[in-house]
Every structure is written in C-alpha cells, then in structure tokens.
Sequence to fold (180 residues):
Amino acid sequence: MLAALEKLRASVVSVMPAQPVMAGSVQEQQQRLGRVFTGRGDSAFLARFAVLNLIGLALVGAAWVEGLLVKPYQADTSAMCYLITALFLWGLVCCLRRDWQSVRWAGNALVYLGMVGTVLGLIMTVSDLSAAKGESAESFKQMVTAIYVGSGTALYTNLLACIGYLWLGTNAHLLARQEV
Fold:
C-alpha cells in the first residue's frame, strides 16, 4: 500500500507545474470568474421578487375565483379603490426597480388614502342620511342604501389600502431588509 501511495505522489508531482503561478494568470482567472458570476445578484433578486409576488398573485386569483375581487370596486362609488390600486401597482414597479424610498412613500400614501377613503365613506353616509328624511318605507330604503354605499366605500378602501401596504412592506422587507 505504501508503494501505491508513493507512486500516486510521484504522478501528482509530475503533473504539477514546476514554476510558480504568475500574477497575470491569477488576474486572468479572477476576470474569468468575474464574468461568470456577474449578473448573478440581479437574477437572484428577480427570482425572489417573482416567487414572492406569484404567491400574492395566487391569493388574488383565489379571491377572484370566490368572487371577492370585484366587490370593492363595485361598492366604492368614489373611485378611491382604483386610485389605491394604481398607487399599489406603482409601488410594485418601484420594488422591481429597487427604489426603496419610493416604495416607502407609496406604502405610507396607501395608509393615508385608506384613511381618506374611510372618512369619505362616512361623509357619504351621513350626507345621504340627512337627505333621506321622512317616515315612508321608501325613505327607509334610501337610508339603508346610503348606509350600505357609504360603509362600502369606507371599509373597502381601508381594506385595499391595508392589503397594498402589507404587500409592499413584505416585498421591501424580504427583498432588501427595508422598512416601509
């Protein structure tokens, strides 16, 4: 066995170069490795972004199958839900561009728009209730409709804003360890 090991050592020594490695070849190897591994961070980021948002998209798809996706837009007569959705999508594009300051701004603006939508819905409810005075069944119907429309706007805008804020915050935290 000792003879076999000595033979193996002799074959390895004969294959190894007798001269030391030159600095130029080390730099050449580093450049080659650099070319191989450049862009790796971008593809890893894009993969994490895709996986994270595909999970969210699957949840949106489940809400669509259950018929829950269109309810906020149908109940909101002020079109605030469309504004919140557009702001959320812009925030997602900023996540993809790694513009974390804009993501933070969009997340905070979503929270404020949710509050504004809540107040707007309450104002709509109160203004329609004060206009629907009377004792008839028709006026009672108008009051119930006003409560439904106003609270739909109030609650759905707040719900969409909170979901958008959480989604953007999750993206920022998991992709860049940023706080929104």
